[in-house]
Description:
Blueprint: E1 2-7, E2 19-23, E3 26-31, E4 37-42, E5 46-52, H1 55-59, E6 62-69, E7 76-83, H2 85-103, H3 107-112, H4 116-137
Antiparallel strand pairs: 1-2, 2-3, 3-4, 5-6, 6-7
Amino acid sequence: MTLWKDRKRILGLPLTFTVYSLSEDRLFVKTGLFNLRTEEIILYRIRDISLRRSLGQRLFGMGTVHICSSDHTCPELDVKNILHSEKVKELIHEQVEKMKLARRVRVNELIDGNNPDDDLDDNLDDGLDDAADGEHDA
Length: 138
């Protein structure tokens, strides 16, 4: 299901062959006329979203949503020259948060790249070792 779709625009007109779309779990960028290329970012990998609007973009009611992610093939993505850029940024943010909650993704997983279960197991093992040491001392 597509939640949002738009084209990169020039002077407010959709004259390019770049199409952006947002589904419930991914953001897609399709480019090209003869040689087609599709990039996608899984939403739970998005770490930061910002909005940029130059004077020219504001005059035509457009903006650029800048996305930083932990995706290896596309760590940064600009969704350029789109209409209703503030609303699109908020829509992406809401979907990112929904996907993170659904997949139980925490921020430190994306930054550290560590498995949080490993840290939990280490803490539990340390606690058990400390408790066992305390029993032997008594």
